[in-house]
Automatic annotation (TrEMBL):
UniProt GO BP: defense response to virus
InterPro entries: CRISPR-assoc_RAMP_Cmr4, RAMP_III_fam
Native source species: Thermodesulfitimonas autotrophica
Pfam assignment, any one: RAMPs
Protein name: CRISPR-associated Cmr4 family protein
């Protein structure tokens, strides 16, 4: 096993932050510079993986040192950024939808090929104002935007995304929940569709505000994926890394762990695309 794809389905809100900035939102989430899409940066994800490996195997375990490296030696496994694939968006006409766009699907195809996996699907390409869905329905409202529904066969798309999702119950909802919109319209949801939460520190005696700040979070049920590459001759390190999720297939990433944020259900795709 030389390469693998890690599927990360958010079970709680995520805050892979970039620290404090000057602006309306004090603590925004990390975003890709050219696309403005939320991202879990590779160094942050690698740190989360190492922390979990140390909890499962022990801080001084030799396999942990081999996988992630030490001060004077590189690790055996390279970890990419976790990239966005499906973003939950509120729908005024029903339950929320998992929204994606042609660019994200095309990029996932390319990443699968990079990982040595098949990815031969035809990417749906809706026009502006159109929403491609798998089942006939009336006009679709996502947030305050309305879309003309175009019914198309999304099953090949669903089948290639499903292995990234750990829970069978969630995979069963995928066919009815996925919506493909135009790239230009998707970026609106990625920029403006995330929750902004106010947090406050109160004075113990007077209960007045001492520190009020606003932070951005990525909603639960968002789907990310990351690529993992083993160095030549050290392929067994990927198997060791996969092993840390056998007993408990969850990973905490990003900030706000103490308020329950950052938990993801992990799915592991190895060569051939099979989930573990």
């Amino acid at each position: 096993m030389n390469n693998a794809i890690l599927g990360l389905l958010a079970e709680t809100s995520l805050h892979p932050g970039i620290g404090q900035v000057v602006g309306a939102v004090d603590l925004p989430v990390a975003r890709e510079k050219p696309t403005d899409y939320p991202v879990i940066v590779g160094s942050s994800l690698k740190g989360a993986l190492r922390d979990w490996a140390e909890q499962v195997l022990g801080v001084e375990n030799e396999r942990v040192k081999k996988i992630f490296g030490e001060q004077d030696s590189a690790g055996a496994v390279a970890v990419t950024d976790a990239r966005l694939l499906l973003l939950p968006v509120r729908s005024l006409s029903g339950h929320y939808k998992w929204v994606t766009c042609p660019y994200l699907l095309e990029r996932y195809q390319r990443d699968r090929k990079l990982a040595g996996m098949t990815a031969d699907i035809s990417v749906p390409r809706p026009e502006k104002g159109e929403a491609m869905v798998s089942q006939k329905q009336g006009q679709l409202f996502l947030e305050e935007l309305s879309f003309n529904v175009v019914v198309t066969n999304l099953m090949p798309l669903v089948e290639i995304i499903s292995p990234l999702i750990r829970h069978a119950s969630v995979r069963e909802r995928l066919a009815d929940g996925v919506v493909v919109v135009n790239d230009d319209e998707f970026v609106y949801f990625a920029r403006h569709g995330l929750a902004i939460n106010a947090r406050n520190v109160l004075d113990d005696k007077t209960k007045t505000s001492e520190n009020l700040w606003y932070e951005e979070t990525i909603p639960a049920d968002t789907l990310f994926y990351a690529l993992l590459f083993a160095r030549f001759g050290q392929e067994d390190a990927l198997s060791d890394l996969a092993g840390i999720f056998k007993a408990r297939p969850y990973l905490q990433v990003g900030g706000n762990e103490t308020v329950g944020q950052g938990w993801c259900a992990v799915s592991w795709l190895s060569f051939g695309g099979e989930a573990q």
